[in-house]
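Posting for a labmate who doesn't have an account.
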Amino acid sequence: MTINHAIVDNFAHRETIHLWETIMGDLRKLLPEHSYQTWFMPIKPVKQNGETLTLSVPNRFYAEWIESNYKELLTRVLENVNPELSSYFFIVEPAPPQELQKEGSIEKTRHITSPAHTEHPPIDERYAHLNHRYTFDTFVEGPHNQFAKAASKAVADALGNTPYNPLLIYGGTGLGKTHLIQSIGNYARQKGGPRNIVYVSSEKFMVDYITALRNNRLSDFTGIYRKADLLLVDDIQFLQNREGTQEQFFHTFNELYQRGKQIVITSDRTPKELQGVEERLVSRFLSGLTVDIQPPNFETRVAILQKKARLEYLEIPDEVIDFIAQNITSNVRELESAMTRIFAYSSLTHLDITVDVAKKVIRDILGVKKSKVISVESIMKTVAAYYRISENDIMGKNRRKEIALARQIIMYLSRDMSGDSLKSIGLRLGRRDHSTVIHACTTIKEKIDQDPSFRSQINALKNQIELQLY
């Protein structure tokens, strides 16, 4: 009997494909979609030989990455699907040219030898997707960000021709780093300056590098990033512990710097705090100018909300803007989000925008109830922060006018809101007599009745304290 080996091999290959499809189905359930698409979709089954499954990958880096990050998971899934499988083996087979056009960004970019025949947009169109709202004019300046804005404007006015190369802007989440870095790009574009403006996050830089490696398209990758006239990279901290990507960024940085091209970077921490970033990169970051952005103060928060209201054509009462600014203090993004939610709530419920409406929305933002008790201590903390006075001064014997007034306000609010007795309030505020508390309450009540501005301050404090219930 003659055995047709071609038929046998074809059957075996179909079995291997079916096995791999089952394995892929299980992997997809266990992995984030972007990880599954990036690392496992390009793998092709080759053959099964006893306990070993042979798989093809586009390049060596690809195999090393899976070995470093997914070895245990892949082995476990293999054994679950087929107990006879205990290992796998990679061979490197570059993807055929027709498959390269099916991928995103880098893979779609062919090596162009003649501009007359290109069907692709120029670099600045594909890689400088800047938000047109992020401009220097719409950026609200305050003491917390004044230096960062001035440095950004100076860089935008003379790209690559200032000592501020690179410019690194750092600060917490939602404080305006992305606004500033994109303002530089928009300003440069409006001036008709550099043609090749590249704006990316460090995560996109890494993904582009990986996909270029996977498809043997490194020349396309370097052609995009190293031909930039202005390179804007957001959130550089995500390069931590990514040695291969750091290597590429280092060489990209050096080439652009040597050619006098401007580099601007943002980070959520100072360069020296970037753990897992090579020392030579940190040294490059520190060679230019490093500026920080701090959380905005109350006056700047009010200005930010007023500007947003004007830009969005929203009618928000001043007392509501003050209330939002007093209670959302962490970052600009949350501040603007709170205003948008208040306006949306008012529109959908057909209610006027009032402090009570704002209070309800902000309670939802801050979360569920934490406590049903307002303590004298929490009132003192709120008042001290509001008037920028230390709690030690309030508890002590300091009789300066502003400290004495703050102490009386705490007594008045404690009697009104805490439920504590006069004696208890006095004892908690530096062992003062209950008659002192009575005098304070009378004084503050009279001032509230006579002074509308002071009455607004007391109402603002009450609103802040009530929010502590949530």
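Reply:
Got it, the structure tokens are right above this. The beta strands are 44-49, 52-57, 87-92, 167-171, 197-201, 230-234, 262-267, 289-293.
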